[in-house]
Amino acid sequence: MRNVLLAVSVVLAAVFALQNFHSVELSFVIWRFETTLSVALLLALVLGVLIGALAMLPWTLRTRKEVRQVRHQLADAAAHPTSPRPPSAPPKLPIQDQPR
């Protein structure tokens, strides 16, 4: 299934590139260059993915650290099991006034 999706994606990308072969001029601060529209859009997509990945990096690293700590705690708990506690007695209920 993955190969079929990959093949369909490649075909769609090729059709997109062929239909958007117009020349465009891109400028950013002091840089100017000319490329095709499909390459410019692909560049924008790649930059957006990279910026999104960099924005998610702190959360990803923090989550991995927490998972590592929990795994370490579980390994310690498995290596040093504690003796089972006896069941605690049910709480005593207050004595109610008896009817006369």
Give descriptors for this structure.
elongated; alpha+beta; two-stranded antiparallel sheet; 100 residues
Instruction: Give the helices and strands as they follow along the chain.
Output: HEEH
Taking the sheet with the most strands, its summary is: 2 strands, antiparallel
What level of helicity do the residues show? 55-70%
* Structural shape: elongated
Overall pLDDT, averaged?
A: 83
Biggest sheet strand line-up: 1-2
Indicate the low-confidence ranges by residue numbers.
none
Ends distance: 81 Å
| C-alpha-based Rg, rounded | 32 Å
Query: Which structural class do you get from the secondary structure elements?
Result: alpha+beta
* Helical run tally: 2
Total DSSP E strands: 2
Strand content: 5-15%
Notes on the structure:
The protein contains two helices and two strands; from the N terminus they run αββα. The chain is α+β, with helices and mostly antiparallel strands. A hairpin with a 2-residue loop joins β1 (23-28) and β2 (31-36). The model has no long low-confidence stretch (mean pLDDT 83).
Summarize the structure.
The chain has 100 residues and is of the alpha+beta class. The chain is built from two helices and two strands.
